[in-house]
Amino acid sequence: MSGRKQFDVGAALDQAMRVFWQRGYADASLGALCSATGLGRGSLYGTFGGKDALFRQCLDRYESIYSEQYGQALAAHPGNPVRALEAFFDVILTRIADPSVPAGCLVAQSATQSATLEQENSAKVRDLLDTQRRRVRAALADSAADAQVLDELATFVVAVNQSLAVLSRAGTSDSELRAVARLACTTVADTLARATSGGAASD
């Protein structure tokens, strides 16, 4: 039919996402994007609106694939924040170990280049990190610890998550990454225990 797209837009978006994931925004050339998607420059712009718009759609695509998995893990153990974080890190490390996807994390890769991104895309990356932090913070909410402690722990967990992605790109083994995650969960557990016992002692 005249005017009908003769390719799978979703598949093209997935391939473009892999390019940004592997190379980062700065090194994801239009040539590489066209080669990966099988589209000419005119079709790429006509379908996705250019590199910046395509990158933003890839961030949305990445979020749609993984965000629900993270949210389910964090919500799977109500009343047990440490177990929720263990489940969260397990999902992350399983994705990192998956040979069918690029190493690391598209959000972590993009965060390192935030200063060079178009403003809307930089804000999108920040929003994805903030969303992750809010979900972690919600998983910690059942604790009796002070709100400031929980806020700081949520930021700590997100920082560890992003560090795991960076370390994986540098070739750190799965066993080493899982050791980092275990230590992070132990740190959270110890901090919550101290904060709770301290609050009880002061009553």
UniProtKB/TrEMBL annotation:
Residues annotated as domain HTH tetR-type: 6-66
Source taxon at top rank: Bacteria
Chain coiled-coil ranges: none
PROSITE patterns the UniProt entry points to: HTH_TETR_2
Start-end of DNA-binding region: 29-48
UniProtKB keywords: DNA-binding, Transcription, Transcription regulation
Gene3D superfamilies: Homeodomain-like, Tetracycline Repressor, domain 2
Pfam families: TetR_C_13 (PF16925), TetR_N (PF00440)
InterPro entries documented for this protein: Homeodomain-like_sf (IPR009057), HTH_TetR (IPR001647), Tet_transcr_reg_TetR-rel_C_sf (IPR036271), TetR_C (IPR011075)
Protein's recorded name: TetR/AcrR family transcriptional regulator
Organism whose genome encodes this protein: Streptomyces smyrnaeus
Species lineage: Bacteria, Bacillati, Actinomycetota, Actinomycetes, Kitasatosporales
